[in-house]
Amino acid sequence: MALIPKVVGGYTPTCLEKAVALYSKAVKTVVPVSSCRAAEAAKLLENTFRSVNIALVNELKIVYGAMGIDVWEVINAAKTKPFGFMPFYPGPGLGGHCIPIDPFYLTWKAREYGQNTRLSSWPASQHFHARVCCAPVADALNDRQKAIKGSSILILGLAYKPNVDDERESQAMS
Fold first, then answer.
1. Residue 98 annotated among the catalytic residues of the structure
2. 130 and 113 within one domain
């Protein structure tokens, strides 16, 4: 965590100065911004960006699968381009304590200002985990002429990312 830059804002310039001093003791790179609101907005942007892209790649896995195209091959080819592409990979859905929630908060807050969002709240309304994760398990069992009912299935890892013991909002629980 010490290598992940920390965005900080302060209620006053003195608060910002103290926050930067505090975080600088634990984090290699501290990124000061003009206010607490700007810092929170940066976090909302990060999480909404992840949310949209996770939902997109899960949807593409389903579509490409139906077309007979290997989504992993497509992702590996696309990430060779230096045009700002960032790879996201198919998985059980949105996880973590804030990624599934922040887009809803942003949508709710936008309405306070007379604005409507569509793209930021779209991913959380999509329930791809069953089609992305459960369907392949069912298919594998069917290929072996086994029923889902009565089968024992071992699930390893309940956290939303590797080496994290935080299972809040993990799709493995749904």
1. yes
2. yes
Give the CATH number for residue 77.
3.40.50.720
Model confidence over 65-110: pLDDT tens digits? 999 999 999 999 999 998 889 999 887 766 666 666 777 788 888 8
> What domain range includes position 141?
42-173
Same domain for 71 and 137, yes or no, is yes
Nearest to 30 by CA among 41, 19, 46: 19
Section 57-70 average pLDDT: 91
Q: If you average pLDDT over each of 86-90, 101-105, 150-154, 160-164, which comes out highest?
A: 86-90
Pick the catalytic residue from 36, 98, 133, 134: 98
Same domain assignment for residues 61 and 90? yes
